[in-house]
Every structure is written in C-alpha cells, then in structure tokens.
Input
Amino acid sequence: TMSSVAVALKNAIKSRCTEDENWLRAGVGNAFFQQNPVEIVASQLGNQWLSSTSTQLEVSRYRADAEGDLLPMEWLLLNAIIVGDETSTTFYERSSQGFTAAIPVG
Output
C-alpha cells in the first residue's frame, strides 16, 4: 500500500502530465494513464522499475537534459520512494538469462 504522501505525489505529478514523453513507459502514453490511473504504479514500477531501474534512470536523465522535461525524473523518484524507505531504496536489473538482481542503494 502506498503512503498518503506517495499517493499525493503521484496525483500531483499525474495532473501535470500532458504528453506521452512525460511518462516512463514506451508504447503506453498519456491518454492511457490519464484514463487508467490505477495502471501508473503497476506499469511504471511493476513492469519497468522491476525490470531495469537503470533504464528508467537513463530515460529520465535523457528527457531532462535533451527535452527539459523533468516529469519522468519525478516518476523515477516516486518509484524510489515507494520501493524504499527514508535512507535507501532498491534498484532492479534483469539479466540476459531472465534473472532479476536486487541492488540495494543507500
């Protein structure tokens, strides 16, 4: 269950998203998430963060640097908050063999 702070943060970020590139998910964009808000955490955290946190970081950094869009970075930080605690979080990376490694950060 998400904390009330995480829920408020998710809603605040969502309310500012207007383009597909504001989200950390390719192939699923703004219209989908605005119409199906329950899928935001399931998709961006469950499908993407748990598969390759470093890819989410790479995408969010690219969009911030190249496009000036900080919303993907905000989604990344929300994911870190949901997965972690006050001093640490966990990154995940799926290997080419299909295994996922949990990498403590913090």
